[in-house]
Design goal:
Elements lengths: L13 H6 L14 E7 L5 E7 L1 H4 L4 E5 L22 E2 L5 E7 L2 H10 L1 E6 L18 E2 L3 E2 L1 E4 L2 H6 L3 E9 L11 E7 L2 E6 L4 H12 L6 E4 L15 H13 L3 E4 L5 H4 L6 E9 L5 E13 L20 E11 L12 H19 L3 H7 L17 H12 L11 E3 L2 E13 L6 E6 L5 E4 L9 H13 L6 E4 L16 H22 L9 E6 L13 E13 L5 E11 L6 H20 L30 E6 L18 H4 L1 H13 L10 H12 L2
Parallel strand pairs: 1-14, 12-13, 16-17, 21-22, 25-26
Antiparallel strand pairs: 1-5, 2-4, 2-6, 3-5, 7-8, 9-17, 10-15, 11-12, 11-14, 15-16, 18-19, 19-24, 20-21, 20-23, 24-25
Helix pairs in contact: 8-15, 11-12, 13-15
Length: about 700
């Protein structure tokens, strides 16, 4: 394990995970620990009028049933989805209305099934449509993005354009479904709250618990030692951690709450459906004159979350006249939240599909169209790019993919009942960083200890931070030990927005650089405890930048479409990225490939439906919500350019966790169109949908 930054070093915790010794939030077996299972609401809107717990309490092993009538009172949360068991309101189906605590998981499950809840139901509205009367323009979309941006006269310029595309796309609700469901174990000791939780940020959890339970933060310890995936759904606390702490306080015993997978779509967030309208107008040479991207989406009545799906159109292509608009309807649905590459994933699917349609209208190669519309500065802000190598990604991807040999005519290649096609799409994701703190210690035995409350959600954070520290110290990586995942460590932001390594690495680099300087000045042996240095990047990591900072990439797909069954198979996926300095080639490739696999699922298998009558998601588990498996992923390749960008952070790195998903669905959709001559504008491209389109295409 001698790798410094850039080396393809294996994960430090890999053996623990494959050997079963890595402990997750449900695996801390404190003496006297009990289990708790929530009871979800069975109506889409209304009030709880009664909770009959007699049968549940009669189940052997059941200790207690918490309801809105006897649960501990909480402080007012900033996130209203955490106000569980505080009143009789049911804002959507699946909202938790009781919690059964029992000696065993089996008894808790049986007890929850025995709880009888009566309701006063109200009429509900759960179906989003482009003309829904409740649609409004919010003050802002997710991540503080303006809901509307307009320059010039996009409508007039569109009407005068030589080539025009006016199309609508639809992305259904999507669900995160991490391998480890949302789980927390909580206990109270001497007035202190001690929590193990599956979260993307322990300090964020501690801050919320302090507010809810009226405790000083220093009396709460939150640990997220190993986290089995999150994809955004664990970015902030979810009801499991609040319920575990409430039950532990009421019973006086350690309590574990592990949410069943079928409960997740209703209570841990989801990607909201997005309805897109794209209007692209270009001159005869293929240069965009007008670009309009309008998005309609839903949010819950519990709290507002607006998927910022039109924002990528503000970054990608030069057009003097442009409009990007978000509208949202508050419905009786579960609260949407972050899902990997929020905004960019659905937004770039629609934009890059529309660009493919425009290329067809113009008779231009899709890559050439994108190259012709390459902007000199960020179109929306006018700021220069810190680095932008999208054209190079497209060119390198075309070379590796063999794009030059492509017959551009749709439906030109056939192998028996199979139609073959290829497609391309671009990708982008913003570069973000947040202030972080870190500690570095030199020990007398010649080793070093780096401490920071980073979270490893399967991305290899321990490994890459050790590489960053070793680089700054100028020592082999095996001499650097890493401690992460606890609020007892220096505070750090959550793992999200592809900003974890940039944020944490900045602080680790700063601490280790300072430590190296102190060691150079130090004479004599080190003290027994070692030599400590602390770093805080506040004021640096969050400073305003004069530069537009983004990662870019190009995705290529080759597909076969079965004309008998409608089945789409992806024979090959290729991604080429410009993402700053790659700090670990091995884990980076894993991240890119993982994102592309998720994009494949978005394109072909993943989709959810809001049941209009019952008000819940019809696809609530992995039997009905289909994520890609090994058999779905054939050839998949990830490559990158060596990009030197000194305007980012001390490591010169950009986030890579999410850009892999961004262009994949569009590349696959464009390949399906090339194969079939049929343009499908709604995901996922399931066999029934594709076969229907093929049959309609054959009709006279």
């Amino acid at each position: 394990m001698t790798g410094r930054a850039g080396a393809p070093t294996e994960r430090r915790e890999g053996r623990e995970k494959v050997g079963g010794t890595a402990r997750y939030a449900a695996e801390f077996h404190h003496p006297g620990r009990v289990q708790a299972r929530p009871v979800p609401a069975a109506v889409a809107r209304g009030r709880v009028t009664g909770v009959d717990t007699v049968a549940a309490l009669a189940v052997p092993g059941v200790l207690d049933v918490l309801t809105h009538e006897n649960a501990p009172r909480l402080g007012e949360p900033d996130d209203a989805t955490l106000a569980v068991l505080q009143n009789d309101r049911v804002p959507h189906r699946g909202w938790f209305v009781a919690l059964v605590v029992a000696e065993t998981l089996e008894a808790a499950r049986a007890g929850a099934a025995a709880v009888r809840v009566s309701y006063d139901t109200e009429q509900h509205d759960v179906v989003l449509g482009a003309s829904h009367p409740g649609l409004y323009v919010p003050e802002e979309a997710n991540a503080g993005q303006p809901a509307v941006r307009e320059q010039g006269d996009p409508d007039g310029a569109f009407g005068a354009s030589a080539a025009r595309v006016d199309v609508a796309y639809r992305v259904p609700p999507l669900h995160n479904h991490p391998m480890e469901p949302h789980t927390s174990t909580a206990r109270w000791e001497d007035g202190r709250l001690l929590v193990h939780t599956s979260s993307q940020g322990a300090h964020a959890v501690r801050a919320v618990l302090a507010r809810l339970f009226a405790l000083p933060e220093e009396r709460i310890v939150v640990t997220a030692e190993h986290v089995g995936g999150g994809f955004g759904s664990k970015g902030t606390p979810r009801p499991d951690v609040v319920l575990a702490a409430m039950a532990a306080r009421r019973t006086g015993r350690p309590v574990t709450v592990a949410l069943p997978r079928r409960f997740l779509p209703a209570v841990v967030g989801h990607r909201a459906p997005t309805l897109h309208r794209l209007r692209l107008g270009a001159d005869a040479d293929g240069r965009l004159v007008s670009l309009t991207h309008e998005v309609a989406t839903h949010t819950s009545r519990v709290k507002e979350f607006v998927e910022q799906a039109a924002v990528p159109a503000r970054v990608m292509y030069a057009a003097p006249h442009r409009r990007t608009l978000h509208r949202v309807a508050a419905l009786d649905v579960p609260s949407p939240s972050w899902m990997r590459a929020p905004g960019e994933a659905p937004g770039m699917y629609a934009l890059e599909s529309a660009m493919d349609e425009l290329a067809g209208e113009l008779g231009l190669d899709p890559i050439e169209l994108r190259v012709r519309n390459e902007p000199d500065v960020e179109p929306d802000s006018g700021r220069p790019f810190s680095s932008r190598h999208l054209v190079e990604c497209l060119r390198e991807g075309a070379r590796r993919f063999g794009w030059a040999a492509r017959d551009p005519r749709p439906r030109a290649r056939r192998d028996g009942p199979l139609l073959l096609g290829t497609g391309v799409a671009a990708a982008t994701y913003p570069v973000m960083a947040s202030p972080s703190t870190a500690g570095a210690r030199a020990l007398p035995d010649g080793t070093f200890l780096v401490r920071i409350d980073a979270t490893d959600i399967g991305t290899g954070a321990r490994t890459v931070l050790a590489q960053v520290g070793a680089d700054a110290l100028g020592v082999p990586q095996e001499r650097v030990r890493i401690e992460i995942g606890s609020t007892e460590l220096p505070s750090a932001p959550l793992a999200g927005g592809s900003s974890g390594t940039a944020s944490w690495g900045w602080a680790v680099h700063e601490a280790c650089t300072r430590l190296a300087r102190r060691l150079a000045e130090h004479t004599g042996p080190l003290p027994e405890r070692g030599l400590d240095v602390h770093a805080d990047t506040t004021g640096a990591a969050d400073a305003e930048s004069a530069w537009a900072r983004h990662a870019f990439g190009a995705h290529f797909a080759e597909v076969t479409v079965d004309t008998v069954t409608g089945e789409v198979r992806v024979a090959r996926l290729l991604g080429v990225y410009a993402a700053g300095r790659i700090l670990n080639a091995r884990t980076a490739r894993s991240q890119f490939v993982g994102g592309m696999t998720m994009g494949l699922g978005m394109a072909l298998t993943e989709g959810s439906t809001v049941d209009a009558a019952f008000g819940d998601f019809a696809e609530s588990d992995l039997a009905s919500y289909h994520v890609p498996v090994h058999a779905d992923v054939a050839g998949i390749e990830a490559h990158w350019l060596d990009e030197d960008d000194p305007r980012l952070n001390p490591m010169g790195s950009k986030g890579i966790g999410e850009i892999g998903i961004v262009g994949t669905a569009a590349a696959i959709g464009n390949a399906v169109h090339h194969a079939t001559g049929v343009r499908f504008r709604e995901l996922p491209l399931t066999p029934d949908r594709v076969l229907t389109g093929l049959l309609a295409h054959r009709a006279p």
